[in-house]
Amino acid sequence: MNVRRSAAALAAIAVLGGAAPAVAAPAPTASPKPALPSGLYGRTDPTYDGVFRQSLALLAQHTVGVRPAVKAVDWLTGQQCANGAFAAYRALPGHACDAKVMVDTNSTAVAVQALAALGGHGGTTGKAVTWLKSVQNKDGGWGYNPGGASDANSTSVVVGALAAVGEKPASVVKDGKSPLDALVKLALPCSGDGSGAFAFQPDKKGRLAPNADATAAGVVGALGLGLAPRAAGTAAEAHCTGSGGPAPARAAANGAAYLAQATARTGHLTSTMPGATDQPDVGNTADAVVALAAQGGAAQARTPLQWLEKHAGSWAVQSGPAAWAQLIFAAHATGTDPRNFGGLDLVGKLSATGPAPLAVRATGAADARQKDDSGHGTWWFVGACLVAGIGVGFLLSGRSKKKQP
């Protein structure tokens, strides 16, 4: 109850009751805010994105040669439930998960991608993937919540988790359908509005509407890749075609053509959030850069990449670790220096949002593994990759719980 209303109620009792004793209104006291875990990235409320932003931060650091603090990794592994699933955030990880803990596919899949990249967490990722397979839908895909209707974003981030642990997504089937089959069903034809795009989900009448965020996710998912892919080795033209080649690869190329057209004039995607008028969607633009580079090479992503280098800094400052991670993934996918991204050191900005890392590579990238001398297992390929949802394009750019516009 509002403190002022409490005081007014006590005053009314004194007037009406006559004999009621005078009671002083209690001084307002602020409820103490629970301390955030010291291993967590970001200082905002982690209720809805704790595991997501932690996973993106760890994966992004790994791709640029930063070895994160042990307590940051331990925080993430400690969020897992006994059945292998992850929720968005568990304030009391020492308590067993019960029906009130809302586990989801997106948090689970991004955690798998981060921990698989770091290495030494096979037990954790194995349990998580087993759980993901147990909640696969009959159409081969996944929804955000277990049993929910399949959507492009959730299916794509799970594809990335499967690939991260060495599974072939096309071979993970339910009733004969794979996640790639589910993604192809969400791809629009090369005619009409939004040709080549992916829909988030069909509407109630089964119709598909183009969704840029779902398209960025769908392109990467249809290629069988995760959140931090490298640029395609061979440049590919972005154009929409209804025939030729395997259906998933064709859907990815068509989706890239949609994204290229959507970013050609302004360099960015536009927000579809209610009330937004011609407002750039920075997070989804970063995801589009990753998708375009993964499908057709760095040159295909040049226009939105250049826009990001000029305009993304203030957005990331406000948005926190997941945003810095998304920009690192965009830099990695295009071969851009993440320590000089439009004049910003993305690596340093991300590291400043969490516990001090154990080690930082000064420049460049490597493919060598390092051992963790603290006894926490094998750690690290150091490459230049990067994550970050929304939004996984995928989840949270608003990425957790995406809604069809």
UniProtKB/TrEMBL annotation:
CDD domains membership: ISOPREN_C2_like
InterPro entries: Terpenoid_cyclase/PrenylTrfase
Protein keywords: Membrane, Signal, Transmembrane, Transmembrane helix
Membrane-crossing segments per the record: 378-396
Leader sequence residues: 1-24
Protein's name in the database: Terpene cyclase/mutase family protein
